[in-house]
């Protein structure tokens, strides 16, 4: 969409800017864009990092909606892996809930935990939980 004339990305608010009539005309051709007017794309930078210039220019992409769904699926998979890993590391229920709360505030912490060597993961989570209690 942002590759089309008259569509721009507001980097501060993370929304696509265009006239309402222009957006509605675009949606008549591209159904996957319906419901996106004025909606912030909080993960646009991540999309761009994952898909490079393809997302930025919308070349060779089946649709922006499909790309967003793919990113949401990847995030859900990471959350599932993190939850399983916390259980495997012998954390109990309340600790898992607290860790999930930390991950919700700072998703990069979840990704970092999953990238660490297995022998450091428990220690990393314990430090996150301790830091979270102090703040």
The tally of helices reads: 7
**Average pLDDT number:** 80
What is the H/E string? Answer: EEHHHHHHH
Q: Structural class given helices, strands, pairing? A: mainly alpha
Radius of gyration: 19 Å
Please bin the fraction of helical residues.
55-70%
Q: Biggest sheet, in brief?
A: 2 strands, antiparallel
Low-confidence runs of at least 5 consecutive residues: none
- The coarse silhouette is elongated
How many DSSP E strands? Answer: 2
Write up this protein:
The chain is mainly alpha-helical and 135 residues long. The chain folds into 2 domains: 8-63, no CATH class; 72-134, no CATH class. 64% of the residues lie in helices and 4% in strands. It contains 7 helices and 2 strands. The chain has helices spanning 20-29, 44-51, 53-57, 64-88, 93-105, 107-115, 118-134, and strands at residues 8-10, 15-17. The protein has a two-stranded antiparallel ribbon. Strand 1 (8-10) and strand 2 (15-17) form a beta hairpin. Helix 4 (64-88) packs across helix 6, helix 5 packs across helix 6 (107-115) and helix 5 (93-105) crosses helix 7. The N and C termini lie far apart (41 Å). The mean pLDDT is 80.
């Amino acid at each position: 969409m942002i590759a089309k004339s008259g569509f721009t990305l507001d980097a501060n608010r993370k929304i696509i800017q265009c006239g309402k009539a222009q957006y509605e005309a675009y949606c008549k051709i591209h159904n996957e864009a319906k419901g996106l007017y004025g909606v912030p794309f909080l993960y646009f930078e991540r999309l761009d990092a994952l898909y490079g210039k393809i997302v930025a220019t919308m070349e060779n992409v089946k649709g922006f909606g499909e790309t967003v769904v793919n990113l949401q699926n990847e995030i859900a998979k990471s959350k599932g892996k993190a939850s399983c890993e916390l259980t495997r590391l012998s954390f109990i229920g309340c600790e898992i809930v607290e860790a999930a709360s930390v991950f919700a505030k700072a998703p990069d912490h979840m990704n970092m935990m999953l990238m660490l060597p297995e022998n450091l993961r428990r220690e990393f989570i314990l430090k996150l939980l301790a830091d979270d209690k102090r703040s």
